[in-house]
Amino acid sequence: MEKISYEQYLQLIDGAQVIEKDGAGIKVLDTQQGEIIKLFRRKRFFSTAVLKPYAVRFVNNAQQLDTLGIPTVKINRLLWCHSIKRHLIVYQRLDGLLLRDVLSDSTLNSDALFRQFGSFIAKLHNKGVYFRSAHLKNILVCPNGDFALIDISDMQIKKKALKLTLRIRNFQHILRYQADKDLLKKHTEAFLSAYLEASPLNKTDAAALNRGLQSNLSNTSAT
What we know:
Blueprint lengths: L1 E3 L1 H8 L3 E6 L2 E6 L4 E6 L13 H15 L5 E8 L4 E7 L4 E2 H5 L6 H17 L2 E3 L7 E3 L5 E3 L5 E3 L6 H11 L3 H8 L2 H10 L5 H16 L5
Parallel strand pairs: 1-5
Antiparallel strand pairs: 2-3, 3-4, 4-6, 5-6, 7-9, 8-11, 9-10
């Protein structure tokens, strides 16, 4: 991890465009030169982030996903700036569109896209990836048609394929927003059939997963 001074931090962000911030400050910047700068702060005094900062988790997850053949961001630098109490990651900007925006386009073949989405989530689960932030705003559709993961700090990568309980629980994270549920409700069969075709589940587990998905779809979520 590279340590930088406040002056170096200012040089790093000079000319960059703020694309995300909250009450605690800047979260994400676009350098306009093909790189994104993501800032991480520790939200609580007592936190597991003391031992393993979220920025380090982000970098480790990116490396593991690459090993598994799952498209994601390419890390260029991992930094710490004591003056602002922030870790920073500089990574290569991924070209593409948010999956939610693509699936919301009524002119496209939505069933085919939802089948691709279902197959992609099955691929993650089969490879042991439990991505808590796997909602439709954290999956990118790249120009070549592949799906890629972004904002990957909140993730666990198991040594084996996910068990049924974790697969069902992950659907809760994927469908945390009502807008995403409304989209999926129209194409549930396409999504689920593709997911099951790509998953090594027996009939009993497939039926249980279907019930779990339907239950998640019927619950009201945040907008």
